[in-house]
Amino acid sequence: MILGVRRAGKSSLTYLYLRNMIRGGLLPEKDTLIANLEDPRFPLSLSSVDLFQLYEVYLQNLQPSTPIVVLDEVQNVQGWEKFVRYLIESQKARVFVTGSSSKLLSREISTVLTDRHVDIEVFPLSFKEFLSFRDLPVSNGVEIAKQRVHIKRSLLEYLEWGGFPEVVLSEGTARRRELLFRYFDDIVIKDVVKRYGVKEIHKLENLANLLVANMASLQAFNKLKARIGASVDTVERFCSYLGNARMLFLLKKFDYSAGEQIRSVNKAYIVDPGFYTVKGFKFSENSGRIAENTVAIELWRRKAFNPQLEIYYWKNHQQKEVDFVIKEGTKVNQLIQVCWDIREPQTKKRETQNLLKAGADLDCNDLLVITEDYESEERASWTTIEKNIRFVPLWKWLLE
User: Where are the domains of the chain?
Assistant: First the structure.
């Protein structure tokens, strides 16, 4: 199962894999059935019955041996998992499933396909992939050092326009803005309104715009309800829908009490900074939040490769806050603070003190501050606490 936000490249990756298999002589071309389930030639309402009929026509006409069946954007089909289970249990085909909703990972579907599927999460391009699209080699330290100036310049473009592949490959501001506006509207309308039958479309759009404009900040449902004129339940439900569509990621506060975690105020991050460019404010006015959001999405990308990772933020009763707590198993492995401009002494003092306090409370010695361009490792102390803190530029951390 290949999951991720709309237009991140799920279909392209699948097609490239199949093309390479065919060109390498490992797969006969007639042994591939690709169904784009958003094709307007399909009925508006699809069910597993339609998939069975499509498959039968394919078998009758091409008579494949052991085909690969690709169901693209499968969340549009009611009961699709019945068809997939039939193919797997009968060992008649291998199946690729792509979708733009995390509902495809629900407990019910996992039960239906127990131990029979591998999940792959696809995000917009990472910074390393973005540089690859720009033909900038960064496979080793020598190349990174040689390309340092170009890499730093490319980071500013990445932070402004994000990593959706078609946006990255497009020339001109107008075209990029057009694509990002379309992606935003498609996610809201196709992946939320149509999928969940939302009637209060205007309120949903207002909430989505509000969350994008205020990314990387605490979002209390009680406050959001007043701003969009809806109940707390509606705000929570809409946030869940946007999360399922992978536009939005909600981060909980770290607490050893599961109950306190559930009751905590969430921090909201968006899947791609390009949405902020077209829906928020200028980069120069909010570079710190954009950098923090970029770190958050990169952490979720890394979590996709290591499901044991857990990501939280930390905040104590004195309102000291650390942006990211990285936990694996029972141990907190790392604390990360994002501070775009660390040159101001008072800013540096505040950020390091927050890290030191959190490090002492959570018994963690790996303390990291991600900056615009400041790099160092320093011994810091506050009251009775003394620990090493690393300062790493964002561009370098993204290439680790």
Answer: 2-122
Chain center to CA of 199:
27
Within 10 angstroms of residue 297's Cβ, the number of other Cβ atoms is 20
Q: What pLDDT digit, counting tens, does each position of 109-131 carry?
A: 555 566 667 778 899 999 999 99
Could you read off the pLDDT of 6-58 as tens digits, one per residue?
Answer: 999 999 999 999 999 999 999 999 999 999 998 889 888 899 999 999 999 99
Which contacts (CB < 8 Å, 24+ apart) does range 199-207 have?
200/230, 200/234, 203/228, 203/229, 203/230, 203/234, 203/238, 204/238, 204/241, 207/235, 207/238, 207/239, 207/242
* Strands 248-251 vs 217-219: parallel, antiparallel or unpaired: unpaired
- The Cβ of residue 163 has, within 10 Å, a number of other Cβ atoms equal to 23
CA neighbours closer than 13 Å in the CB half-sphere of residue 247: 28
Q: Cα angle at 99 between 235 and 187, to 5 degrees?
A: 40
Rounded to 10 deg, the angle between the 48-62 and 80-89 helix axes is 40
By the 8 A CB rule, do 51 and 74 touch?
A: no
367, 385 contact by CB (below 8 A): no
Give the residue carrying structure tokens 């006015």: 285
DSSP 8-state secondary structure symbol assigned to residue 308: T
Positive/negative CA dihedral, 278, 279, 285, 286: negative
pTM over 0.70: yes
Q: Which CATH number fits domain 2-122: 3.20.20.70, 3.10.120.10, 3.40.50.360, 3.40.50.300?
A: 3.40.50.300
Q: Residue type at 248?
A: L
